[in-house]
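Dear support,

Our group has been running a series of protein-ligand predictions, and this particular one with zinc ion is the one our PI (initials K.S.) wants archived with full inputs and outputs. We had some confusion internally about which version of the output was final, so please treat the block below as the authoritative record. The input we submitted was:
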Amino acid sequence: MPAKGSFSAKLSKIGLFPHDVKVERRLSDLRKYFYDKRAVESILSRGEDPLIYVVYEIGREREGELNVGCTIIYPGKIGDEYYFTKGHFHVKEAGEVYLGISGEGLILMQDRYGGVFTEEIRPETIVYVPPGLAHRSVNTGKNELIFLAIYPSDAGHDYETVDRIGFAKIVVERDGKPTLIDNPNYRGEIK
Ligand code: S6P
Ligand code: ZN
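Confirmed final output from the archive:
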């Protein structure tokens, strides 16, 4: 039984304890994704390496089963860009459902030609990620953004394409508000 009030207890409430995978992503893992390279290097050169997000996951093997992942993106910014997840395409044409648990944020969804649209992730809201779209989540709030992701166990994750071309849009703070702008480092349409 997880300790009362602990994060494991919260995961237990949403059916995710015990999880079998825990992934931690720090700034050093995401250095090439944030657009403000000077801000990234200045933080890392001070010996700091902030934790950006954590994923707890129950992975399953059999075709037809569903994986469940719980992501926590911590609040914060690198320069003026809000903390986010790496982002990926699924290898198979597999859709996914996100369920907001707490905090506030956005999910960016991008097609293979750089067309991007966003949806809000908020408590008790569901976002459908259609097959074939890269997706990245962004914490635009002052607290942890926590959400569940439910997707086919054989969906697979393609991070390489996002590594290569990036997202066409990024989310930065402008006049105190989250604002979607063009990514100066976007490397164009996928060939
Ligand atoms: C899995 C789903 C999420 C992400 C998680 C971390 O298909 O979309 O569980 O894995 O939010 O993002 P990323 O891009 O590092 O996998
Ligand atoms: Zn996904």
